[in-house]
């Protein structure tokens, strides 16, 4: 009843004199409200409430989709998740009581954040454990809370979830944004992930030069994945001048850290003498190191080499 009165009042504010009629029993102006006008205002009111709900759920890490005010399965699911953790009901519906509860929860979170300096790290660690157990939705929620505080590890981990659509809707643009926030802090794992986005043109325009630049920033910090990725670009001359020796050097740096892909790639270069002196025995050794970690191509190449030259595999 009160909602209808409020809606009628809002409608009355938007009326002009031409839309009015005089009440024969008084001097009050009265509007003849059509069903379509009533529905339009009601829809606007509900959309505003839904948007407010989405915004609060987003701040609490429960809603990680578009803030558009449209009620649908993602919003309903986020509401149910919040209700499951905080309330007795789980109806998934937007309501004034829900908004009040969300506002209280957010204020409580801000208070806890102020009083507990380790909360950001704790949220990240709990999210990391959730991801390890396969609960990506919980991981995304906790990473979001930590990422919003500028925590680089959480930003890149949340970006990975967006890239692969784990616990959230796949979104290359959001993944790229998060990787950049973390990379701008000098975080090596974010730099290589952002480089991958530029290499594949996911969320950004494909740019091999920028990919190589980011790989180098990460590789210079000793990050094995970046070393093998940059080595690949030098091997094939993508974004940099082709240089087999530099490719082999980078592969070795990564292979020495136990990276299976680098071991396989370096083995290939020894097998065919690219950037290094041809050496089938060293190729076989590297293939085996990689194959022992489950690298399928390394296993196949090792079997082929051992059949062709059994002496190098003894």
- Sheet with most strands: 2 strands, antiparallel
Please identify the structural class as seen in this structure. mainly alpha
Instruction: Tell me the overall shape.
Output: elongated
- Strand order of the biggest β-sheet: 1-2
Count of distinct strands? 2
Number of helical regions = 15
Strand composition percent: under 5%
Can you give the mean pLDDT? Answer: 91
Helix percent band:
55-70%
N-to-C series of helices and strands: HEEHHHHHHHHHHHHHH
Radius of gyration: 29 Å
Identify low-pLDDT runs: 13-23
The termini sit apart by 87 Å
Features:
single chain, 314 residues, mainly alpha, two-stranded antiparallel ribbon, 2 strands, 67% helix, elongated
């Amino acid at each position: 009843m009160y909602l209808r009165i409020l809606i009628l009042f809002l409608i009355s504010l938007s009326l002009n004199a031409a839309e009015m009629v005089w009440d024969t029993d008084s001097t009050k102006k009265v509007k003849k409200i059509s069903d379509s006008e009533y529905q339009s205002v009601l829809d606007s009111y509900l959309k505003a409430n839904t948007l407010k709900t989405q915004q609060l759920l987003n701040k609490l890490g429960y809603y990680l989709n578009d803030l558009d005010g449209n009620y649908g399965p993602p919003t309903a699911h986020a509401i149910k998740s919040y209700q499951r953790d905080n309330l007795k009901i789980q109806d998934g519906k937007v309501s004034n009581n829900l908004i009040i509860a969300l506002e209280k929860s957010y204020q409580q979170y801000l208070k806890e954040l102020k009083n507990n300096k380790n909360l950001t790290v704790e949220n990240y660690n709990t999210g990391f454990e959730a991801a390890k157990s396969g609960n990506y939705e919980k991981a995304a929620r906790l990473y979001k809370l930590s990422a919003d505080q500028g925590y680089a590890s959480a930003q890149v981990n949340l970006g990975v979830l967006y890239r692969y659509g784990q616990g959230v809707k796949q979104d290359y643009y959001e993944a790229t944004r998060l990787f950049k926030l973390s990379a701008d802090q000098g975080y090596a794992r974010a730099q290589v992930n952002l480089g991958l986005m530029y290499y594949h043109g996911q969320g950004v325009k494909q740019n091999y030069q920028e990919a190589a630049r980011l790989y180098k920033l990460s590789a210079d910090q000793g990050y094995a994945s970046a070393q093998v990725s940059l080595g690949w670009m030098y091997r094939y001359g993508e974004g940099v001048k082709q240089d087999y020796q530099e490719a082999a050097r980078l592969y070795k740096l990564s292979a020495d850290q136990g990276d299976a892909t680098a071991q396989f790639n370096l083995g290939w270069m020894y097998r065919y003498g690219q950037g290094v002196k041809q050496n089938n025995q060293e190729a076989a050794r590297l293939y085996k190191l990689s194959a022992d970690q489950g690298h399928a191509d390394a296993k196949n190449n090792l079997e082929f080499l051992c059949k062709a030259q059994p002496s190098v595999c003894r």
